[in-house]
Amino acid sequence: MIALGLLLAGLIPRQTALQQTLTPILVVMMYLGGIMPGLDRSPLVEKTSVLLPVQYYGDAVRQIVMGQTGRFPLWMDAAVLITMTVVLVLIAARTFRFESAR
Questions:
Q1: Domain presence at residue 70
Q2: What is the structure's pLDDT at 38?
Q3: pTM score > 0.90 for this model?
């Protein structure tokens, strides 16, 4: 998620605009990724949620911390999270620029 924040920070230079943009994105990702409990998800949401890294994060946490059976194997959760982190960091490195204070 930090890599996503850096990516968006490179695209949206103002901090308040970034916060206002990032908050709804993260809430929707948590909803679609199954982090928020008690959600009856439609088959369409079930199919599209596999595109979100938060789905794999929540699945790994449920397996490790709660001892529940996961939707995916733990190795797959780790592989997807590592891959998404590397991809987003590489993209963020191209877009993120520090501005010097005057």
A1: yes
A2: 52
A3: no
